[in-house]
Amino acid sequence: MKKVFALILSLAFTATLFAAEEAVLKTDYYPNGNLQYAGYTVVKGEAGQIPHGYWQYFYPNGFLKSCGYFKEGYRAKVWTNFFSNGKVESYGPYDDGKQDGRWYFFYPVGAKKAEGKFSDGLAKGTWTYWHTNGVLETEGDFKEGKRVGKRAYYDERGNKLWYGRFKDDEKDGEWRLDEKDKTTVATYKAGLLLGQREETYYDEDHDDIKTKTEFEVVHGKLTGSQIVTTYDEDENITSQGLLFNNTPYGVWRYYEDKNMTQQENGAVPEALKERRRAIEEEYQMRIQQKAKEEALKAQGIDPKSQQQQAQFYNSDEPFEYGPRKFQVIMQAPSQLDMNVTTDSGRSIDLTENNYDVVKENPGSFESLKQQALRAQAAKMTENIGEGEEK
Fold first, then answer.
1. CB–CB of 102/117 below 8 Å?
2. Distinct helix (H) and strand (E) counts, the chain
3. Distance from first CA to last CA of the chain, Å, rounded?
4. Most CB within 10 Å of its CB: which of 98, 186, 201, 282?
């Protein structure tokens, strides 16, 4: 027991533990015998045992899943998460259980996916996103976790796609998509389509209009109904009518030599009527939900407050850090033995300037880091007897 207690003291969180409380090592294993998690807890009043110190979580295949510190039940300092294939997913700091500071995100293949800052758990400032081949996907600003201002999106070849503005995390105003022979324009208000969405096809020189399609919008949703207008080389209208699922309906008009003829193509399709009814029902539900949110606000309750709360450990079960929008390489704990040997035989201490080195070259230290951390997890549990707390 003395040896176990000494091991606990050597690995425990550097901050002072609760007065007169002893840190307890908690571990558990998968059915295949691999370590599932290992970390330290202390007792805090009615909350019972809460994490306070260094914790590690593993996948069933033995790869490190997540690692970092808890401080009195909340995540703190830099946390690291990995994909199940061993690749780094993301890394960045926490403060009082919330993401706070600059975070880095990666694709499973190792390429950087995104980079930006959090403040009190919410995205802020300029964020940048890349495709897997390193080409810019988009860059834009956040304010209190919401997208704001101008933003443009690019494909993997760098071609500009949609561009427009965000307001309070919703598309607002005109959004455009300019292609070689087509321009698409959609106008939004509070994230919902406003009026009609238009697609205009041009000739090879992009000078003269060939076809214009206006998509019907009801309560910000596309119904699938379209008004299609065709033009001649002088941009005179040659035909105009309604389509649903590429099938004409209603009255179509045809123009030739200043003469107009009409063709009746049947009544409004039942499928279109059903689509409109579904949109109306969804719209009424949104109104009701909005009314509930306003009622909560009138009582001084933030409808989204639960989503923004820091996660606090209050259970004997292993702490899970919740839904992962992204995941993480943390700075190796300085009190751990993180000396490893590279393939070339060179000895490296991963604690020395680890954060900066890993940030610049995450792939280089990935396997070494996992090797060291798995070794530490083994040391944490090797001397624990059958009858002792896990």
1. yes
2. 5, 24
3. 13
4. 186
Return the amino acid letter for 93: P
Q: pLDDT, tens digit, for every residue of 60-87? A: 888 889 999 999 889 999 999 989 888 8
Residue 186 CB-density burial (10 A; 0-12 exposed, 13-18 middle, 19+ buried): buried
CB 176 within 8 A of CB 197: no
H or E segment and range at residue 200:
strand 197-202
SS3 70: strand
Left (φ > 0), alpha (ψ -120 to 50) or beta: where does 2 sit? alpha
Residue type, 153: Y
Contact between 351 and 368 under an 8 Å Cβ cutoff? The reply is: no
Cα dihedral sign, 160-164-170-173: negative
List Cα–Cα distances, 95 to 100, 119, 348, in angstroms. 6, 9, 29
User: pLDDT by residue (tens digit) across 157-202?
Assistant: 998 989 999 999 998 998 998 888 888 888 888 888 876 688 888 8
Cα–Cα distance, 21 to 110 (Å, whole number): 42
Q: What angle do CA 92, 95, 96 make, to 5 degrees?
A: 140
Which 3-state string (H, E, C) describes 208-255?
CEEEEEEEEEECCEEEEEEEEEEECCCCCEEEEEEEECCEEEEEEEEE
Residue 86: closest CA among 327, 280, 376, 284? 327
Q: Give yes or no for a contact between 322 and 311, defined as CB atoms under 8 angstroms apart.
A: yes
Q: Which helix (H) or strand (E) holds 89?
A: strand 88-95
- pTM of the predicted structure, to 2 decimals: 0.65
Mean pLDDT over all residues of the chain?
Answer: 76
